[in-house]
Design brief:
Number of domains: 1
Largest sheet: 7 strands, parallel
Number of helices: 8
CATH topology: Rossmann fold
CATH superfamily: NAD(P)-binding Rossmann-like Domain
CATH architecture: 3-Layer(aba) Sandwich
Structural class: alpha/beta
Helix content: 40-55%
Number of strands: 9
Order of helices and strands: EHEHEHEHEHEHHHEEE
Distance between the termini: 48 Å
Radius of gyration: 21 Å
Strand order of the largest sheet: 3-2-1-4-5-6-7
Length: 285
């Protein structure tokens, strides 16, 4: 960790009271940032701010309500003087089940949180950042926004749209020195994931075990792993990076599987040529 990397900078993190959002809040604060924790979860949000102390504020924020998103950003400006990072992270799995039985009210709520909430964050962050002529906006997508069959239908649609929206807004805001990027976490140990794969939202150990058993690398993905990617995109090290989608997923969305041409009969080097003719590499037994 680079101490002081975000000294004097101000961030708003939606969904900041738990999971990925909490990890990002903690990491930013540890590196000198002032942070507004924007979440519907009042008790854990207040508790986090009380623990971290100075340079944090809590704002009750339902991202489906534009005025509440705007108020969280206005709180950052009022308390800390500016806005350097907007992390649109709040999200829900939302509507689950077959497409022919999906209640549209549930679909509307899923889109409202996962897409409209990001749109609100982009809108009101830009309102503050344009006059500053600086800032970074990062939004959370998902492998389900890039691959079919790995997430619920409406969630997948929203997360795909977050990527498209971010790229479009990145093109608009680039002349203002405002960078807009997207982070794509794999299945991460969090209360929401624990509800799906373990014994409930509080069963983080169970989620760690379940996700670790199917992990593409040697352990389960943690919120801190994702936070490291977010902080890179927010930092000066990424000063020339905008309009990108950064997966933090052990290659899930970029690598189809383990190469079949390096094991078994191919463990020793060889060359396959025309009509199936092979040549054996020099020195092969």
């Amino acid at each position: 960790m680079v101490v002081g990397r975000f000294e004097g900078r101000v961030a708003v993190v939606t969904g900041g009271a738990s999971g990925i959002g909490e990890a990002v809040v903690r990491a930013l604060h540890a590196e000198g940032a002032s942070v507004v924790v924007a979440d519907v979860q009042d008790e854990p949000g207040h508790a986090l701010c009380a623990e971290l102390g100075e340079r944090t504020r809590f704002a009750h924020t339902d991202v489906t309500v534009e005025d509440q998103v705007a108020a969280a950003i206005d709180l950052a400006v009022a308390e800390f003087g500016r806005l350097d990072l907007m992390f649109n992270n709040a999200g829900v799995m939302g509507a689950l089940g077959p497409i022919d039985r999906t209640p549209l009210a549930d679909a509307d709520l899923t889109l409202a949180v996962n897409l409209r909430g990001v749109l609100c964050g982009l809108k009101h962050a830009a309102r503050v950042m344009k006059p500053q002529r600086s800032g970074v906006v990062i939004s959370t997508s998902s492998p389900a926004g890039l691959l079919g069959g790995v997430g619920p239908h409406v969630y997948s649609a929203a997360k795909s749209a977050v990527i498209g929206l971010s790229k479009s807004v990145a093109a608009e805001l680039r002349p203002y020195n405002i960078r807009v990027n997207t982070i794509v976490p794999g299945a991460v140990v969090s209360p929401m994931t624990a509800t799906v794969v373990a014994g409930g939202a509080d069963d983080l150990d169970g989620a760690t075990a379940a996700l670790g058993a199917s992990a593409l690398m040697d352990r389960a993905l943690t919120p801190e792993d994702v936070a490291a990617g977010v902080l890179y995109l927010a930092s000066d090290a990424a000063a020339y990076v905008t309009g990108v989608t950064l997966p933090v997923d052990a290659g899930m969305t970029g690598i189809s599987g383990t190469s079949p041409y390096t094991t078994g009969r191919y463990e020793q080097p060889m060359t396959l040529l025309e009509a199936g003719r092979t040549t054996v590499a020099p020195g092969r037994a």
